[in-house]
């Protein structure tokens, strides 16, 4: 399942999730504001602290709302 | 895929406070506006942790206010296209075309409300530490710095507001200000001055940022003495103003030397039937309330123009 690292206060995260919803894609949300462990996981996977980050089933990581790359990976 | 040709009365580009207000007025005038937005609906407002100067709300978060704006527009039937990105815009006194990934819009009138984006810091290692300590949205990225010391660069209301927001999360916030005073609203500045874990550094210029994998310090200089020193920081949040989003409009209509759209007091641009509203417009004050005012004027004048074109 696709994973989305995000937080409720992040506008680009809201946009990314709305886009995945519009494409009827299922995903798990990992709220980085919820715990330090979630942030550590984000850093381990993406090597940085910015959100949103989407992790695809094949391990590809997309930082930010990069629609073109997301479209290619869906 | 062949693009659909859509003939419509009004296309509004940008769904920040100006664009949404224009859409509300246009929808109520029966113009069935199409509202296009590439970024976040609500524009820069979504990234404001707190708004305390919009009439009717003593205190509201930017995303809440943006959500209210959006719901208001949608309740009037405005459809916001936020995933069909614009590829090209062609504006003449006669024909107007807005070409998106899926469609070619041919409107009678256009309102440009594309807003502005945060300016980069323009220091050498900025891109190396982007997302690794250099950030432009405290609301999005502050949580990574719980209990740490962070910096804010800037002297306007946005910088000081975000310093106040960060002070609730970080252990300490150091505001780096190049000049000898802040031009933030006095009420916000007073709050920052009274906040124990905020330090305001005057006459201090950011020269660069540094560290290993993640940002570890800011290199600064005292403008008056030219002394340079490193401030240990885990992150730097940039709030040094914004630049207009007019990259798709270059060559289409008159822009100021800084790239803002030149208009008259009624939001007319240099092209007939094309109006501009909000932060993208060349003007003195860029506030939510002035963007909203621009949006209303642009829609009312666009309506007048469309009626005139239709011979009514």
Structure write-up:
- The complex is a heterodimer of chains A (74) and B (312).
- Chain A has 74 residues and is of the alpha+beta class.
- Chain A has one domain (2-73): Glutaredoxin (3-Layer(aba) Sandwich).
- Chain A has helices at 11-22, 36-46, 67-73; strands spanning 2-6, 27-31, 53-55, 61-63.
- Chain A has a four-stranded mixed β-sheet, sandwiched between helices.
- In chain A, strand 1, helix 1 (11-22) and strand 2 (27-31) form a beta-alpha-beta unit.
- The model of chain A has no long low-confidence stretch (mean pLDDT 95).
- Chain B has 312 residues and is an alpha/beta fold.
- Chain B is built from six helices and 17 strands.
- In chain B, the strands form four sheets. In chain B, strands 1, 2, 3, 4, 5, 6 and 17 form a seven-stranded mixed β-sheet that branches.
- Chain B is elongated.
- The mean pLDDT of chain B is 95.
- The A-B interface holds A 7, 9-15, 18-19, 22, 32-33, 36, 39, 46-51, 63, 67 and B 39-42, 46-47, 49, 61, 63, 66, 82-83, 85, 130-133, 135, 137, 139-141, 143-144, 146, 213-214, 235.
Describe this structure in a few short sentences.
The complex is a heterodimer of chains A (74) and B (312). Chain A is an alpha+beta fold and 74 residues long. Chain A is built from 3 helices and 4 strands, in the order βαβαββα.
Topology:
The complex is a heterodimer of chains A (74) and B (312).
Chain A: E1 2-6, H1 11-22, E2 27-31, H2 36-46, E3 53-55, E4 61-63, H3 67-73
Parallel strand pairs in A: 1-2
Antiparallel strand pairs in A: 1-3, 3-4
Chain B: E1 4-13, H1 17-28, E2 34-36, H2 62-75, E3 79-81, E4 86-91, E5 96-100, E6 103-112, E7 116-118, E8 134-135, H3 138-141, E9 149-153, H4 157-167, E10 172-176, H5 186-193, E11 198-201, E12 204-211, E13 215-222, E14 228-232, E15 235-238, E16 242-244, E17 274-276, H6 288-309
Parallel strand pairs in B: 1-2, 1-6, 2-3, 6-17, 8-15, 9-10, 9-15, 10-11
Antiparallel strand pairs in B: 4-5, 5-6, 7-16, 12-13, 13-14
């Amino acid at each position: 399942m696709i994973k989305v690292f995000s937080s409720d206060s992040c506008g680009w995260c809201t946009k990314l999730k709305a886009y995945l919803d519009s494409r009827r894609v299922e995903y798990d949300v990992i709220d980085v504001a919820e715990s330090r462990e979630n942030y550590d996981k984000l850093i381990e996977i993406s090597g940085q602290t910015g959100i949103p980050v989407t992790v695809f089933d094949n391990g590809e990581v997309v930082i930010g709302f990069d629609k073109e790359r997301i479209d290619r990976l869906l | 895929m062949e693009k659909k040709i859509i003939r419509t009365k009004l296309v509004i580009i940008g769904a920040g406070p100006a664009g949404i207000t224009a859409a509300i007025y246009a929808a109520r005038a029966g113009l069935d506006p199409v509202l296009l937005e590439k970024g976040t609906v609500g524009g820069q407002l979504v990234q404001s942790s707190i708004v305390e100067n919009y009439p009717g709300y003593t205190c509201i978060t930017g995303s809440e206010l943006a959500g209210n704006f959006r719901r208001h527009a949608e309740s009037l039937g405005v459809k916001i296209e936020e995933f069909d990105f614009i590829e090209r815009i062609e504006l003449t006194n006669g024909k107007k075309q807005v070409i998106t990934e899926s469609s070619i819009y041919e409107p009678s009138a256009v309102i440009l409300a594309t807003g502005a984006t945060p300016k980069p810091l323009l220091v050498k290692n900025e891109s190396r530490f982007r997302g690794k300590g250099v950030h432009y949205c405290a609301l999005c990225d502050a949580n990574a710095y719980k209990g740490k010391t962070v910096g804010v660069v800037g002297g306007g209301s946005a910088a000081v507001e975000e310093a106040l927001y960060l002070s609730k999360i970080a252990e300490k916030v150091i505001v780096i200000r190049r000049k000898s005073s802040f031009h933030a609203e006095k009420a916000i500045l007073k709050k920052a001055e009274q906040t124990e874990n905020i330090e305001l550094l005057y006459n201090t210029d950011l020269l660069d940022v540094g560290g290993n994998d993640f940002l570890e310090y800011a290199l600064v200089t005292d403008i008056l003495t030219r002394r340079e020193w490193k401030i240990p920081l885990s992150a730097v949040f940039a709030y040094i103003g914004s630049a207009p989003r007019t990259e798709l409009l270059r060559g289409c209509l008159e822009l100021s030397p800084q790239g803002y759209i030149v208009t008259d007091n009624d939001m007319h641009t240099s092209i007939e039937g094309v109006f501009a509203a909000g932060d993208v417009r060349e003007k003195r004050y860029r506030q939510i309330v002035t963007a909203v005012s621009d949006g209303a004027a642009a829609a009312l004048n666009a309506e007048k123009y469309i009626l005139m074109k239709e011979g009514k």
